[in-house]
Specification:
Elements lengths: L24 H12 L19 H18 L7 H16 L8 H6 L11 E8 L9 E10 L2 H9 L6 E9 L9 E2 L16 E4 H19 L5 H7 L2 H18 L18 H24 L3 H17 L10 H15 L3 E4 L2 E4 L4 H19 L4 H15 L21 H4 L12 H16 L5 H10 L1
Parallel strand pairs: 3-5
Antiparallel strand pairs: 1-2, 2-3, 4-5, 6-7
Helix pairs in contact: 1-2, 2-3, 6-8, 6-10, 6-15, 8-9, 8-10, 9-10, 9-11, 9-12, 10-11, 12-13
Length: 467
C-alpha cells in the first residue's frame, strides 16, 4: 500500500468544475467508501477472518480508490491541502497496518475549518467516525460541505458571541452514515489513538435542521389548527430564513455550554448523572439563545425573531415526540417548555385547537430561562445529590413523574449510602412520560418525523416543487 502515499494534488487534467460533487472523482470516492463500510467492525477495524469479510487485497484496492479520488479533488480545495495530505497518510497507514482500529489523529489535527470561516467555502471531509443520531459505529465516512458564515453572523460572533470553534455548515453530498438523522460534524466522533488536549472546531448542518424543522412544523401546525401570524408563516415557508435562524441559534447555544453561572464541574463533561440534568442543560442553552434573540430583535437584527419561532416550535413540536423514550433528555426539555408555557397561559389547547399568546411568549419563555439559571447559581453551594433533587423538583413542578418513580418519593426512598453515580440506576428509563396531548401528537407526527431521515434542503425543495 505504500504507493498510496504520493503527493496530494499531483493529478493533472482536473475537469474545470468548481463544485466537488460535480467532479467525476467524487462518485468514485463515495462508492469506494461505501464499499468499505460494511466490512468494518464497530470500532472501525476490518476482521478478515469474519464471515463475509473481503480479501485483504480488495480492501487495499478500495482504499487506493479513496486516496486516488482525494488526490484528484484536492486541487479544488487548496485550503484543505495539508489535511488531505495527512488524510492520505492516515489511510495508507491503516491499510499497511492490516486494517486494525483506525487512527486518524494526524489528519484530524490537520483539519482546521474554523481557521477560515469564509462563507460558501467547500470542504471534502473523510474520516472513520460515528455520526451522532446516525450510525453508532466508527465507519469510514465522506462528506462534502460548505461553510455558512455571512457577514452579519461573523459580526455578531466578533462583537457579541465569541465562539471561535463554531462552524455553521451545509451539505453538498455524503455517504451512508449521514443518510440518517445526524446534523452535526464533531471531532470527538472520529477514531484516534488519543483525544487531543482540546478540539478546535465543531460543525452543525443548519440546512438539515431547517428542512426538518419546516416539515415537522408545517405538519404540527396543520394537525393542531394553530393560526400563525403572517410573518411566522412566511418564515416557515422560507428555507433560507430558517437556515439563518438555525445558524444563529446554534452559535449562541454552542457557546452557552461554557458560559453562565455553572456548577464547578461543568455539565455534560464526562459525568454520569440523571438524564433530566442533561435535559435542563440543553434547554438552558436553547433558552439562552431565545433570550439573546429577544434582545437582538429589539435592536433590529432581522434573523432574531426567526430564532424565537424556531426555538419554540422545534422544542414544542419535534423534540418531545422524536426518538426513543429511554433517557430522552431533549424530549424532556421540549415537554418542560410546553408545560411551562401552558401553565402560564401562553399556550392553550381549547376546542381541539392550539392557541399561542404571541405577545407574552417571549416574557414567559425568558422566565423559565431565569428559573433554570437560578438553579445553576444555587448549585455551586449544594452537594451533587442535593443539586440533582433540586433539578428534579424544578422539572416535576411542571411535568408529572412516572407513578413508580423512587426519585418522586424523595430521598427517603433511595439508598443514600451509595455514591451519587449509583443512584442514577434508580432513575426510570422514562422518568417523565409523555402527557396525553403528546401521546396523541406523537402518533400523528410519527410518519412525518420518520420521513425527515437524511433530509437535505435540495431534496426537500425538489419534492415541494414537484408537489
Amino acid at each position: 500500500m505504500t504507493e498510496i502515499l504520493v503527493q496530494v494534488g499531483a493529478e493533472e487534467n482536473v475537469p474545470p468544475v468548481s463544485r466537488v460533487v460535480e467532479h467525476p472523482a467524487w462518485p468514485v470516492l463515495k462508492d469506494a467508501v461505501e464499499q468499505i463500510q460494511p466490512w468494518q467492525s464497530a470500532d472501525g477495524s476490518i476482521d478478515f477472518d469474519a464471515e463475509g469479510a473481503p480479501e485483504r487485497a480488495a480492501a487495499e484496492d478500495a482504499v487506493r480508490r479513496v486516496t486516488g479520488a482525494v488526490r484528484e479533488l484536492s486541487p479544488l480545495l487548496p485550503h484543505d491541502g495539508a489535511y488531505h495530505e495527512a488524510l492520505v497518510q492516515d489511510l495508507g497507514r491503516w491499510a499497511d497496518g492490516g486494517f486494525e482500529i483506525p487512527d486518524f489523529l494526524d489528519s484530524l489535527l490537520a483539519f482546521q475549518p474554523a481557521a477560515n470561516r469564509a462563507d460558501g467555502l467547500q470542504h471534502l471531509v473523510v474520516f472513520p467516525m460515528y455520526t451522532q443520531n446516525g450510525n453508532p459505529d466508527r465507519n469510514l465516512e465522506a462528506v462534502v460541505l460548505r461553510m455558512v458564515w455571512p457577514d452579519w453572523l461573523a459580526e455578531l460572533e466578533r462583537t457579541r458571541y465569541d465562539n471561535p470553534l463554531f462552524c455553521g455548515i451545509t451539505f453538498e453530498d455524503f455517504t451512508a452514515g449521514y443518510d440518517t438523522n445526524s446534523a452535526v460534524l464533531f471531532p470527538e466522533t472520529i477514531a484516534v489513538r488519543e483525544a487531543p488536549e482540546r478540539f478546535s472546531w465543531g460543525g452543525i448542518f443548519c440546512d438539515r435542521e431547517a428542512a426538518r424543522f419546516r416539515r415537522v412544523t408545517e405538519a404540527a401546525v396543520g394537525l393542531l389548527g394553530l393560526e400563525l401570524p403572517e410573518d411566522v408563516a412566511a418564515m416557515v415557508d422560507d428555507q433560507k430564513r430558517c437556515e439563518e435562524a438555525f445558524v444563529l441559534w446554534d452559535m449562541v447555544h454552542d457557546r452557552t455550554h461554557s458560559h453562565g453561572d455553572l456548577p464547578f464541574d461543568p455539565f455534560m463533561i464526562k459525568q454520569r448523572q440523571p438524564f433530566w440534568m442533561y435535559g435542563l442543560e440543553e434547554l438552558r442553552c436553547d433558552l439562552t439563545a431565545f433570550k439573546e434573540a429577544v434582545k437582538l430583535a429589539d435592536e433590529g437584527v432581522p434573523q432574531a425573531r426567526d430564532v424565537q419561532y424556531a426555538v419554540l416550535f422545534d422544542r414544542m413540536f419535534r423534540f418531545p415526540v422524536t426518538g426513543e423514550r429511554v433517557r430522552n433528555y431533549d424530549g424532556l426539555g421540549g415537554q418542560l417548555l410546553f408545560a411551562y408555557l401552558h401553565k402560564h397561559d401562553v399556550v392553550r389547547w381549547t376546542d381541539n385547537k392550539l392557541f399561542i399568546d404571541w405577545q407574552r411568549a417571549p416574557q414567559v419563555t425568558n422566565q423559565l430561562c431565569a428559573e433554570i439559571e437560578k438553579l445553576y447559581r444555587d448549585g455551586i453551594d449544594r452537594p451533587k445529590i442535593v443539586h440533582w433533587f433540586a433539578g428534579y423538583e424544578l422539572v416535576s413542578t411542571y411535568l408529572a413523574p412516572h407513578p413508580g418513580s423512587k426519585w418522586a418519593k424523595g430521598p427517603d426512598a433511595l439508598d443514600l449510602s451509595l455514591p451519587p453515580r449509583k443512584l442514577v440506576d434508580d432513575v426510570l428509563p422514562d422518568e417523565f412520560p409523555l402527557s396525553m396531548f403528546y401521546e396523541a401528537l406523537s402518533k400523528k407526527l410519527k410518519k412525518v418525523i420518520a420521513a425527515t431521515r437524511g433530509i437535505t434542503a435540495a431534496a426537500d425543495g425538489a419534492e415541494r416543487a414537484a408537489a
